[in-house]
């Protein structure tokens, strides 16, 4: 029987209607409600909302899954699928599948992540620009992208063009990074992973690119490290880099001390959490798809978070199973894990994942039809069309899936097991082993009913370590796979669940809880005489502090008879946490060696990879970071990332961190650093093109200069320059002078002198005023209000004012309420900042610039 696709909904709802309904759905959790509305609720390009709450979304997804199921034997009904999805309890499609399934208003892919790249050692400008265009085309369809740069010849290599020698790969890192920053994806930005082999002669420049130049802010970077390099590090020996990498007849070689480069990797990771490390030989050796490398399935890079190593033009869709939901009698002595229900749902999840591939193939056909219908020439459309044809081929042939988990930390706590303990590691391994076996069993049964992936060959896979572990664990399953094949080339991953965990209201992915208790501040209405004032900020606004409990910590409190409404002191909170199963089990508490040991043990049962971060306190040594990396390699991790507290700005802090009495209100160093990273923002001042140079410290604006993009002296800031450095110098007379330094496309540094005088003598006082308020901690949105309130006469100055305000809006935290602003669409005053734009929470309309 033919099942028709569901009709596109036509009834629309206001932002407030959806918020109130979703707030009820999430039991008062405002953050979860806002995240769902902004990222996953069905909406069109005009901002019209067609879903009131996640229940509508789950019905939409269930209808589509059931439609695909009806094409195959023994189909699941819509009701069965809905029962698995409702309340985010058991099975949770992640990101792109959640937003895109059944969505007729956007032509977007259902894949969360892609890897692209040219065949062989292609490194011409044509191939480099082709990759740039491909990543943008994928990002506009909502996908995250990864690609490797090891094919680009090293710096100084001879080339047969006007440059004579190659610039190396670093300038192209910046190009790809900038392209990523320019692509919007409905409330978020594109995501990019750039990788390079440690065997490449430019690997050191790659490792330093984000450190010394403050660049490549639109990409994550990881180094592909082979076993030979790790052995050289361990044995304190030299290591030979080559180009082409790992070639028997390289055109270029470079010998270095392995430990010197290793120490640089460790130092940079300690300082900035990058680069990440990919243990490449482990990845390739364990990879089931690499059994088909000669058929186009050779793994070359990973997605932006590193959990899916992929071949060029393959993609993956992600789904998480909520582990907490299988704990019966949670947080009680009799708590247990329902393995039988878990096995049943893993089989259903794998089946749903295979259905989503069919839905993705439909989406790709829609994208191809859109490309064909576009009025542009075939020459212009060629790269995009070819890209999607290749992606379609890989999805159809390999049918790759990405089943993962969330709530591992909460699952262990609910069972009374300490995260990172030997008992915790053993239990987690048992859960993931069960998940692997049952997912592969479901894929074998699907092959029996629906057919195997088209290039399946048991002979190719027989020596793969992962397949051999499956055989040892369940020989019957192995021989059934030999007989019927498998529906999917690879099946499993553990991704960071991010916003998904906000909606499941659990810990994220495989991670422990970040904090069981933290504090937020609520602004006090000056007219409310009964309100409690706990904090007064530098602008004189009063705030009340209130405790926020992690949802499952609160559940533990309720089950154990603790009052969740009481206003606890810090001492009382500390005692509560000490009694709970979350004690010494937060991301900063657990033993770091145990965490990488757990990751390595679980990795044995995950055919793709695991995204996990080892959180370290601020005072750890670089030596410890190096030891953790080495341990991760030894225990079989495929990749590892460390984060040292405070090495990046914008991270949550605990309740106990308070401003010291008598401290300055400035959020910056009391003395201006000699060199600042800078962002460049262009704007129109009347009919002239102007530029704002914004000095940055820890990701926050510190000062601002403005000027003509092309001034009287003919100084032109090239269009491609988005970042650089502001350097404090002295002029010939000994006066202070600020210069802007950036690199041109050939890697040569160019300096524009005297920003404060050459560029904006007319507006210097205004810029000085704004810079002063920024340095002394004025919130960005208030600095924007200050700029807007300036009473200036000249129309061109007013336009300058608008341009500077727009430049600073980029740094306002998403969700900040905008004061004194009115929605042009519905006259509402309920506007918030999102991605530097003003977004109305009533009608959803957005105004940028």
TrEMBL record:
- State the protein's name: Vitamin B12-dependent ribonucleotide reductase
Top-level EC class: oxidoreductase
Protein source organism: Antarcticibacterium flavum
Q: Which stretches are annotated as coiled coil?
A: none
A single BP term in Gene Ontology: deoxyribonucleotide biosynthetic process
Q: Name one GO molecular function term.
A: ribonucleoside-diphosphate reductase activity, thioredoxin disulfide as acceptor
Record's Gene3D superfamilies?
A: 3.20.70.20
Its recorded reaction(s) are: a 2'-deoxyribonucleoside 5'-diphosphate + [thioredoxin]-disulfide + H2O = a ribonucleoside 5'-diphosphate + [thioredoxin]-dithiol
Where in the numbering of this chain does the Ribonucleotide reductase large subunit C-terminal domain appear? 111-643
State its Enzyme Commission number(s): 1.17.4.1
Which controlled-vocabulary keywords does the entry list? Answer: Cobalamin, Cobalt, Deoxyribonucleotide synthesis, Disulfide bond, DNA synthesis, Nucleotide-binding, Oxidoreductase
What region holds the Ribonucleotide reductase large subunit N-terminal domain? 29-93
